[in-house]
């Protein structure tokens, strides 16, 4: 009798434990709060809603995804700690996250040591150049953003510019790359100003740019609150020189923070910002409109470029697991690297052993803010 009871208890325990053991654990650490929350908040919301959608449709390889997520608040030390916890305690098979360059860089060595695939949501070229075997990313690089902006400037006859950038990881990296490639596009940087991540007034820097003889346009390399302050100060000073911002401000939140002064600002952005302006034969139309619909229904706020980065990262990961036929880190890593023709919200990804981003400049659209909305520049 006792043996029968033991067998029944054992069977019951197995029945209860099996679904949990069968879950495919995917980790995330993003900046849901803190100075980079305009990036991390839509990323976190996107990951949660997509996991729910995927699980409702049957999961991956017949198993559910369990999302284990942490909020690093933009702190690189917290991001490193959470990445370690995800790997050692939570036993995830892959990680999506790193809202900023700084948090991403702190995660990269952790995943390399543990040999866990990681898809970053940050912009710096240094994340994928040189290629690190276990790290991939979905956002365009800051170097690509410089190139797209310089193409537009040159086409408009603007060849002498003033540069202003944040001293944070993103701003410093984009500034470096813009300086590096400006000459390739015939662009001359006549003035170069810097602001800190906690600065509340960039009037002195903008005044210096305005007073520099010959400046035909101003480019701000930055993300978060800084670019909105730059834009408001630009309007307060009555500067008429064209103002370009980075892809780090590609959300409706930037327009709201910057206010009326944002009208006329140009940025390199993604299709999600002008989804209603896409033609139905655009390769990204279906995926962009589907993501925008579910995000706006569930989150109750406009979809942004940053949520799109998270969308593509998770979808790339799920696609890789399906193609690999196994939720094992090495198999997932190899399958991500072999991704070809994957159309996402951000663009069409074609990765390789020498390219862990897989996007080119065609993934960027040049946009302008008009009457509080993004407009596609032809």
TrEMBL record:
* Alphabetic keyword roster: Amino-acid transport, Signal, Transport
User: What biological process terms from GO does the record include?
Assistant: amino acid transport
Signal peptide location in the record? 1-22
CDD domains of this UniProt entry?
A: PBP1_ABC_RPA1789-like (cd06333)
Q: Which InterPro entries does UniProt cross-reference here?
A: BCAA_transport, Leu-bd, Leu_Ile_Val-bd, Peripla_BP_I
Domain Leucine-binding protein stretches: 24-358
Q: Which SUPFAM superfamilies match?
A: Periplasmic binding protein-like I
Q: Which domain of life is it from?
A: Bacteria
Family that this chain belongs to: Belongs to the leucine-binding protein family.
Protein name, entry field:
Branched-chain amino acid transport system substrate-binding protein
**What is the organism of origin for this protein?**
Neomesorhizobium albiziae
């Amino acid at each position: 009798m006792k043996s029968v009871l033991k067998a029944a208890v054992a069977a019951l325990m197995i029945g209860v434990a099996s679904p949990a053991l069968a879950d495919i654990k995917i980790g995330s650490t993003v900046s849901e709060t803190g100075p980079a929350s305009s990036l991390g908040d839509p990323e976190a919301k996107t990951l949660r809603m997509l996991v729910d959608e995927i699980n409702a449709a049957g999961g991956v390889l017949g198993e559910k995804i369990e999302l284990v997520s942490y909020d690093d608040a933009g702190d690189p030390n917290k991001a490193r700690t959470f990445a370690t916890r995800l790997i050692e305690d939570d036993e995830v098979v892959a990680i999506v996250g790193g809202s900023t360059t700084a948090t991403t860089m702190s995660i990269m060595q952790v995943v390399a040591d543990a040999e866990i695939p990681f898809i970053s949501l940050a912009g710096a070229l240094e994340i994928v150049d040189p290629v690190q075997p276990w790290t991939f990313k979905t956002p365009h690089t800051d170097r690509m953003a410089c190139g797209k902006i310089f193409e537009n400037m040159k086409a408009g006859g603007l060849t002498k510019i003033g540069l202003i950038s944040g001293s944070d990881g993103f701003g410093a990296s984009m500034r470096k790359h813009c300086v590096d490639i400006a000459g390739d596009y015939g662009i001359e940087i006549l003035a170069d100003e810097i602001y800190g991540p906690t600065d509340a007034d960039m009037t002195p820097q903008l005044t210096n740019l305005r007073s520099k003889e010959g400046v035909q346009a101003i480019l701000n390399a930055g993300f978060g609150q800084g670019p909105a302050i730059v834009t408001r100060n630009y309007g307060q000073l009555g500067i008429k020189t064209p103002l370009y911002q980075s892809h780090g401000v590609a959300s409706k939140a930037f327009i709201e923070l910057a206010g009326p002064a944002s009208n006329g600002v140009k940025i390199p952005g993604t299709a999600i910002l002008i989804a209603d302006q896409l033609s139905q034969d655009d390769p990204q139309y279906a995926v962009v409109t589907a993501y925008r619909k579910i995000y706006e229904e569930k989150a109750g706020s406009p979809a942004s470029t940053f949520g799109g980065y998270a969308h593509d990262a998770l979808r790339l990961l799920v696609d890789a697991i399906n193609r690999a036929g196994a939720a094992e880190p090495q198999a997932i890593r190899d399958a991500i690297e072999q991704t070809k023709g994957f159309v996402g919200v951000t663009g069409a990804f074609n990765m390789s052993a020498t390219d862990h981003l897989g996007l080119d400049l065609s993934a960027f659209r040049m946009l302008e803010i008009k009457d509080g909305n993004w407009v596609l520049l032809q």
